[in-house]
Amino acid sequence: MKESQINKKDSRVTTPLPLREGKGGGSAGSSPYLWIPFLFAAEEIPSAMVTFVALLMFIQFGAGAMRATIYTALLLTPWMLKSFVRLKVKQMGNFKTWIHVIEALIFVVLLGTAFYINDFHAGNVGLFFCMLLISILCSWHNLVARMYYERILSAREQRYYNPTKHISTQASAVLTYGVLIIFVGFLEIFLRDINRAWAMENYLLAGVFLIFFCLNLLFLPSPLRLKSYRYESFSHTFRKEMDALERIKAKPHANRALIFLFFLLLPQALMFCPRVFFLLAPQESGGLNCSLQDIGFAQGTIGVIAFTLGAFLARRVEKNRSMSQLFPLMAVVLTLSPISYMLLALFPQVGNMFAICICTFTAQFCFGFGLHACIVFVRFFSGDRYRNTTNFFYLPLIIGEMLVPIAASGWLSLHLGYTLYFILDASTAIISWLLLLTQKHILHIK
Asked: In this structure, what are the phi and psi dihedrals at residue 281, rounded to the nearest 5 degrees?
């Protein structure tokens, strides 16, 4: 389906809803420029915690490379499975109330994690279950926040305020990925205690999240419920989602498209965790012996900025050219990310932060720009299933394809060594290029 058709469908089914006259905790006159940054900052901060920061915590609490990658993959499963509860969440309604409830629970779990790390000498298994609980709550928050956003604003208004949403999301990512990790690194040196340093990080994160929770209580407007959804049991809604998946699998060339997408994402999936191991590992183990401050600056600041620039450029370029023209370019760029780490492994630059930052910028820019190509697969599989495919189908599909390689990457990097591993990772791009030449017709891209 063409993007113009999807947008046209969006404009038909999405209508702006009136606001209540200042009832409840929200103000009907709250400007979107006020409440959108608070809502999506509160969504991104704990999400960044479980997708990247948790990996560093697992390593520092003795999980080892193999177990850390398995834990990281398991933390992503709630995001992969969230589409199965989409209809159930939609039936619940009261999105504003549920946002407040979920945010309160996230704050409690963050605070409880800090207590656990500080007072009970946390191990990596207990830490994993804390992070898994946060991940489940974050995936629900993501669903409810996006449904609330679409309930409050019309399709045209959403397109207008999307830049505000993206800026607040990326600023929160830099805060969590970058500043917070640098802060933990300084605390480890100052306190000489890993447990206390990470406990302080969780206390700080809980405090920051509490501020956004309070701001959302004050400023989120309350939509009128113009439609009540018929209640259905969870098992019934789950069966409906499974039926939809069966219809997707019945599409012509569906299996070939899934294989194509798997190999397109494989280089990035294999790089997802080992790049951090490579930076942290001592020089005698083939790593670059970076500190947490170095990783926080390179990956959490430079990397997030590069990913944002790449994604922004992809959206801008798509406005001027059709996706059929851009797809081959984006698909090739997506698979180039591991090459920079392969070069770093072949020619180690221990202590050279400039080279590490250039490598990180290149890898994350390619990932951000190339990931836009996956929208073609989303449109191929979803058809008319979702009004907004990027919100409810894009992330589960991408994570589902990357999950197994992420889980296996720790074992592979441990047994191959970083140099051979990144050479193997970069070599998988060749399979993607061959599929691009021979199989792109299955997506109706000429």
From this structure: -65, 145
